[in-house]
Amino acid sequence: MSGGVKLEIESVSKQFATAGCTVDALRDVSLQVAEGEFLILVGLSGCGKSTLLNIVAGLDQADSGRVKISGRPVSGPGRDRAMVFQDGALFPWLTAAQNVEFALRQRGLGAGQCRLRAREYLDLVHLGDFADAHVHQLSGGMRQRVAIARALALEPEVLLMDEPFSALDAQTREELYVELQRIWLEAKATILFVTHNTREAVTLGDRVVLLRRPNGRPSVQGEFPITILRPREIDDTDVAEMAKRIAIAMRDGRDLAELERDHEDPPKTRRLLRGDNPGLGRSIGG
Amino acid sequence: MPGPAHVAESLWGLLADGSLLASVAVSMRRVCEGYAVSVLVGVPLGILIARSKALEDTVGSLVAGLQALPSICWLPLALLWFGLNDTAILFVVVMGSLVSVTISVQDGVHNLSPGYVRAARTMGVRGLALVHHVLLPASLPSVLTGIKLGWAYAWRALMAGELLFVSVGLGHLLMTGRELGDMAQVLAVMVVIAAIGIFTDRVVFGNLESYVRDRYGLGRA
User: Fold this and answer.
1) What sign for the dihedral angle of Cα A228, A234, A235, A240?
2) Residue B96: which of B50, B189, B19, B34 has the closest Cα?
3) Least CA distance to A160: which residue of chain B?
4) Which of A254, A223, A259, A253 is nearest to A241 (CA)?
5) Domain ABC transporter spans what residues (chain A) (predicted)?
């Protein structure tokens, strides 16, 4: 699964100026993503996780620190870091296939080659039959599949995903959790995935990194390797239990060791299902 | 007030002696020329203003100010600059529609969801390719509204110009009717002017707009 380090985030800091005073968006955040790793960045809204993702994508500038892909520092956006946005951001004037072809053209492929490869990527996300559908004819879940196909078509070194499933209904989301794990394996992708949903994080990730902002200083506040066997589903007991731990750490800032002591008797599933995610209200951005 | 039969008869007469078709041809040529200039200049100008803060503060404010000026006010200036010729009329038509095209395109690009541009940038698209492959198609629905509005302004400016400035054209034919005291001819020409306006608005732009709205999934306007 893991080769070398694919993505390195080296003590990145960023401040926003709001109404005269500056607010820390990120304070000295360092992170490494191994090749082929599925890394989840989890945190409550406002913890800076989306800002960090935008900095990695090159859409935002860090005040200090560096981002490196395969050892070389990056500046500005580039197709080595493809992004899947919350709303998909597909181009409505193109069909599903044309959206994927758009990405392939950026790699300099010829028209015939683009058409062929676009079909392959749509097949990968199981949307081969909808190649000629317009974006508005697709359901929300289908659009996110096309968005994933479009991002993968760039053959990026890292696939960045910014709460890509948060606007979907629960059924569609669960379907896509299974799909995304399969796609990740088939495409051998390296993924950095941002979410506020701890269940989603545990279902998908090899490792979950927690961003918190104690005392207004947003930084990495814990790391949780997920060793549960794949493919995982969101209502697996192991997933729920792990998600609960992360949710408590997210809320209270207590580390794993403390939690182990607190939970000597393993909590029962019923209790876990309730309130395992304090951040799951209506939170926009993050 | 002449009855419809009388107006129809006059319309037939104008058709028969060829003066109506000749006037329509001249007016259409003028409006098309002026309108083409407006679209060719206004669309890129609108995009540039929307994308550049410096241009927005300078050219943008100027264009917004010019909007308050009815296009026919440019006629005296145009006559002094270009003399009594078609260029003067063309100038008035351009000034009438350029401003509205520019402002609508600028608004359209300005209010564009930033998601498309962000997505394109992460795919490594930038510069002219970004404008051509993303900004333009993304703002096409509002650009279309803008150039449709521009056509209406161009048509009005042309008619005003032709009424005041003696030369061939539909406006001139209207004035001839007045000079002859021929109310039926005046009404006949008015009908033709309105018909051309409605045809372009409903048939040409209407179909174009509903095609684009359909394609983009925007629903009926």
Assistant:
1) positive
2) B34
3) B122
4) A259
5) 7-238
* Nearest alpha-carbon partner for A26 in A218, A221, A195, A210: A218
Residue A150 with chain B: CB contacts under 8 Å: 123
DSSP single-letter state for residue B3: -
pTM of the model: 0.80
pLDDT in tens, chain B (221 residues): 888 999 999 999 999 998 899 999 999 999 999 999 999 999 999 989 998 889 888 998 898 888 888 888 998 999 999 988 889 999 999 998 999 999 988 988 888 888 899 999 999 998 889 988 998 899 888 888 888 989 999 999 999 999 887 678 999 999 999 999 999 999 999 999 999 999 998 899 989 988 898 888 886 54
Question: Across the interface, do A134 and B215 touch by the CB < 8 Å criterion?
Answer: yes
Closest CA to B131 of B151, B149, B116: B116
* Chain B closest-CA separation from residue A81 CA (Å): 7
Q: How far is A148 from chain B (nearest CA, A)?
A: 12
Contacts of B119 in chain A (CB under 8 A): 83, 85, 89-91
Q: CB pairs under 8 A, 24+ apart, for A114-117?
A: A117/A153
Interface of A with B in 30-69 (CB under 8 A): 57-59
Q: Is B132 on the interface with A (CB under 8 A)?
A: no
CA distance B145 to B101: 9
Chain A residues close to B123, C-beta within 8 Å: 79, 82, 102-103, 106, 150, 154
Question: Given an 8 Å threshold on Cβ–Cβ distance, is A82 in contact with B123?
Answer: yes
Contact A230, A181 (CB under 8 A): yes
CA–CA dist B81, B77 (Å, integer)? 6
Q: Which of B118, B140, B216 sits opposite A59 (nearest CB)?
A: B118
Residues of B in contact with A77 (CB under 8 A): 121-122, 124
**Distances from the Cα of A259 to the Cαs of A264, B55, B186, in angstroms?**
9, 58, 91
* Extended beta strands in A126-278, E state: 158-162, 191-195, 207-212, 219-225
